[in-house]
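Recall that a protein's primary structure is simply its ordered list of amino acids. Everything else, from secondary elements to tertiary packing, is in principle encoded there. The following example makes that idea concrete.
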Amino acid sequence: MYVYICRDDYTKYADVCFENFGDRVKHWVTVNEPNIKTLGGFDSGTLPPRSCSVPFGANCTGGDSTMEPYVAAHHLLLAHASAVSLYRHKYQASQRGHIGITLLTGWYAPATNESQDAVAATRMNDFHIGWFMHPLVYGDCPPVMRTRVGARLPDVTAEQSKKLSGSFDFIGLNHYAVFRARADENAFNLKQRDYFADGGIADPIKYILEGQNEYAPWALGKLLDHLKLVYGNPPIMIHENGYADAPQTLSKIEYEDDYRSKTLQNYLEVLHLSIRNGSDVQGYFVWSFVDVFEFLFGNRMRYGLCGVDMNSKGRTRYMRNSARWYSSFLKGGELRLMSPSGKAYSAA
């Protein structure tokens, strides 16, 4: 009963937002990274509400890691579809805006050259991307999830399927890294399984939480090709893409961050090629304008084009080299200029 009340409450909340801000806000995102909130909140318990169960989660407040992530995702999708339906029927014609959803989308690639890892990577892209994209395009979860998760995956009624299909004007992507899939079919044979055991892989999230991101611009190209071929080439807005450093001294002031500029240049080059090959990408945002207190990493990871002087009482901001390069690029400058440190940027 509670989840249905939440869905109705969310739609009422969205109604208030559309009515009061729709004359100025022209691009709406219903939910940001629902595919991560469900796992962090209801599987591992690393995010609120920390509803999870052992051995999959730690410090759990109670819950069921084997089932609740799928239930939460189901109702997040229905809440999204409900808000989109409201916007389209009541506001879109007069406000002339667009509405979508934003997913965290890494790209799963094999951890080794072994065939089982290649199969696991393909399967996990269905679990990771298809978990939300498949209902949004086709009205139900991917067949591989239906097969492997079974009765723990909520059913989608015909009415719900109709409401879900096509319930977006664009898909937002937050993309940072490639995830390495290492097959673990022994986990799938366990009596109790969570999301990663259902997928039959070793959990890669612990490495991400430790800040061990593997930046791979080619993975963005793979992701965009996948969305084009499997999901009908939806309009894409890349809402987050960036590079983080983790200094040993958190207060260290650093102007020279050519590694960040080079990484962004490589991603933009792949993005340009993907658009030339037909991907319908309509926008791109760097994460982030300035160092922020990251939800998962606090101040340990710094993504900012502009830095923050943590020794300053007023937290003074300063421009890094990447900010100067990106500003020049947005004003029509070259993608790969000579860096301020005198080193030439080059393709990866």
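The radius of gyration is 21 Å. The first helix runs from residue 2 to 21.
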